[in-house]
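Subject: two folds for Thursday's group meeting

Dear M.,

Sorry for the delay on this. The cluster queue was jammed most of the week, so I only got both jobs back this morning. I'm pasting them in the order they finished. Each block is the input sequence followed by the predicted structure tokens. Could you check whether the formatting survives your parser before we put anything on slides? The first protein is the one we discussed after the seminar.
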Amino acid sequence: MRATLFRALVAALAVCTFVSVAAADPVPFTVTCSANTADLAFTNQQFSMKIQDGRDFSFNCTGCNLVDGTTYNTSTTGGALFGSYLDVTIGSTTYLSYFTTKVAADTKPGGLGPFDYSLTQITPLLWCDALGTTCTTNQYSGSVTSVDSLHLILAAGTFAPPFAVHVCDSGTPGTPSSPGCTGTTYFQDSIGNIAIDTPEPASLALFSTGLLGLAGWFRRKRQP
């Protein structure tokens, strides 16, 4: 019995150390791209895109002038992502916002890819009912950690599928996962591959340390 438990603990540690898995699965979003524009939309409100951490939106492109590790503001005229925006529907109202994002190059979100670039730390600027200079006050003051759509514009370059999205799933059909990213999160590409969202390094290290401690305890108990 103890030997069985020990093997189970070692197996659990291996799973927690290598958390990325891939399997074909229905894709809850569409990405429509044309030259330098890409539009992400979800087909079911149960799903949304996680923002403000991780590799939230990943893509390939040729001729892009994006720089690894650089933070871009999509409201800045002449910027590499100028004009890109997010939208989220709360109740019956849809809000739109420009955003800032830190670009990471040559990424594998959850083990998927590789992709040329990922948008990370996506942070909305000002939620408005229409984009433009007329919106000067935030019309939605609540917390938004997931959005329903992303409209991405490149100042230079051409998009090339596939894409990958940091997905939120409320777990209940008809129940919105936005704006608060309720439920579980995972990475999924536009051809159906899924990768489990990797825990924060500190949490993973703590959990792994606990498992190692238990494994050591069982090993000592087995010794005569």
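Second protein, same layout:
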Amino acid sequence: MGPTELESVTSTVSRYEDQSVAGGALVFSVTCKDPIWTPIGRHGGAEDRIDVLESLQQETQAKLAASEYQTEAARKQSAAASKASQQSQTELAAYKTLKRLSQSIGDCGDFFGRAFPGKLVFSERGLESVRKADYSDIGGCWEAMWAMSSDLYRLFFENDEVGDVERKFRELTGIEMSMTEGSQTKADKRLMKKREDTYQGEKVDITPHIKLRSGNEHFRIYFGIVRSKKLLVIGDCTDHMETAGTRRRGQK
């Protein structure tokens, strides 16, 4: 730095020597080639530094949010994988104990109750009824319970939009199903009371039912959808629960 430049610096400093700067930093400008640094950085860089720090903070927060999202996604994926693994083990154990094909409706109920406890279960009433059920088409009952634990379960719990579940289930399996009863039956409180059940202390509406037929035999599997537990609950297995129509015909 030459004499002229030094005099310029000295003159500039002398004009600001009695002024204070926020943070206790002395800020001055020079006309020399090399930049002069102060405790807050390059001359005039405080605002730039604030912008940089704010940008870094925003970037860090974004990375933290992304990390938390990925952690939560990984946790959910792990939980789903664990559930699937447990389900596979349970189903495998049920198949290993299946020494022969089901010989009765009760055998079907026993197998599916053990094989798919995370999808298809029986209430106490449902378990009692399936053990007493008398229907000749055991293979048809097996297929219906299989369809309930697979296709029907997916329609209710793994599809974003269920839509016309009766039609979709029929298209997938060829099995008839009804989600409701006739208007006269629904208007009869006594009849609808018969379609109330419980599972683990939770009320379950078992109006929906699978409709099977073999010759002149009719068989119904009444079930409820427990969304809080993601379960289909079988509440009754019978030839036909009483309706307004069966009452008029003198049936029970």
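Two things I noticed about the second structure. The CA atoms of residues 35 and 170 lie 81 Å apart. The chain has three domains: 3-44, 52-97, 98-248.

Cheers,
T.
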